[in-house]
Design brief:
It is a single chain. With 333 residues, this protein is of the alpha+beta class. The chain contains eleven helices and 13 strands. It has helices spanning 41-47, 51-54, 78-98, 117-121, 159-163, 183-192, 209-221, 227-235, 239-244, 259-268, 271-285; strands at 17-23, 26-35, 61-69, 104-109, 125-129, 135-136, 139-140, 149-154, 248-250, 253-255, 292-303, 309-317, 323-329. The chain has a six-stranded mixed β-sheet with strand order 1-2-3-4-8-5. A three-stranded antiparallel β-sheet has the order 11-12-13, with no helix packed on it. Strands 6-7 form a two-stranded antiparallel sheet. Helix 7 (209-221) crosses helix 10.
């Protein structure tokens, strides 16, 4: 791959499988299938899934990240034949290796070099072009470069409908609900926390309260749990993302609050104020729930003034995972 592919070899990207096509003990083709692209507007528009759903379902989509026919083996129909053979076994191989199914394949073709003939011959669907931005270590390139053609191949007839469902059942449900915030959502989050009183002393404040709360909320929305995970998520933010969160600027760079600052703020902030701010954000960006779930929990080590253990009843939306209301109670004696 390094010797003959114009992009060279590709390092492992998340969940990855490599295939070798051989004929009479001689290699004729090499393929790799990797984690799907985080963002692709042409693909996302074709699927039709909501932004609140897609990030948690990207593992059901797999990218054909490399495809090479070895020189001297460029014969008619070989490429489409190799693709067809891979697709017949990919779902089983993927589930055995990574423990979950896949329902859709994607690939990107450079139109300056190729026309995607092999993929068209294998009935892949051309859904449009990328915008030309390329992912880098610091985020994405500032200006668009060479747009790529986007081809998709459903591995089952209802792939598009399945990926856009409000609720997935096993084995397609892959864990907790989480989303990927876009630039507008990052920029809007701090405004929802502006009216909350700051419980900290004025002296020594290094980060705005609404910035700290916005970063914490954004991390939780993206699936982070716990102070350490929230802090690691904040540290991973690019300079562009930190600017959108209105982070403090120091020596020409935007800095994020530390784990201790995030913990101190979340412990001391009024929960009612925080809940109201999050409800306002949900009213703007959340989807609609077709059904509600009522659930009760017993709070460990939470004892009221009468010595009774506290119980909390909650109403949760099945589709959006929004908590509409909570009521604290104690058992009757």
């Amino acid at each position: 791959m390094q010797q003959h592919h114009y992009l060279g070899s590709l390092p492992k990207i998340g969940e990855t499988l490599w295939y070798v096509a051989d004929w009479r003990n001689e290699w004729v083709g090499l393929l790799s299938f990797s984690a799907s692209a985080l963002k692709c507007s042409a693909r996302d528009h074709w699927i039709g899934w909501d932004f609140r759903l897609q990030y948690g379902r990207l593992k059901l989509v797999v990218n054909n990240s490399r495809f090479l026919i070895v020189p001297d083996w460029h014969v008619q129909n070989l490429g489409s034949r190799i693709l067809s053979l891979c697709q017949k076994r990919l779902r089983k191989d993927w589930e055995q290796t990574f423990g979950h199914p896949v329902v859709l394949l994607e690939t990107f073709v450079d139109p300056q070099r190729f026309r995607g003939t092999v993929y068209k011959a294998d009935n892949w669907v051309y859904v449009g072009n990328t915008k030309g931005f390329r992912r880098t270590r610091l985020g994405y390139t500032a200006t668009p470069q060479s747009p790529k053609m986007v081809f998709l191949k459903p591995l089952q007839p209802d792939a598009c409908e399945l990926l856009s469902r409000t609720v997935l059942s096993p084995p397609y449900c892959l864990g907790d609900s989480k989303i990927m915030l876009n630039a507008d959502q990052m920029q809007s989050l701090p405004a929802f926390f502006k009216g909350i009183p700051d419980p900290r002393r004025t002296q020594g404040r290094r980060h705005r309260l609404n910035t700290v709360l916005a970063i914490a909320a954004g991390a939780v929305l993206c699936g982070m749990r716990g102070y350490k995970a929230i802090s690691d998520w904040a540290d991973s933010l690019s300079q562009k993302a930190r600017e959108r969160f209105n982070c403090r600027r120091q020596k020409g760079r935007y800095v994020v609050p530390s784990e201790s600052i995030i913990r101190d703020v979340l412990i001391r902030i009024d929960p009612k104020d925080l809940d109201c701010a999050l409800q306002r954000w949900n009213e703007v960006y959340a989807g609609e729930d077709e059904s509600l779930a009522i659930d009760g929990k017993t709070m460990c080590n939470a004892i009221d003034d009468q010595g009774h253990q506290t119980h909390v009843m909650s109403v949760i939306g099945h589709q959006t995972k929004i908590c509409y209301t909570q009521k604290k109670s104690a058992p009757c004696q």
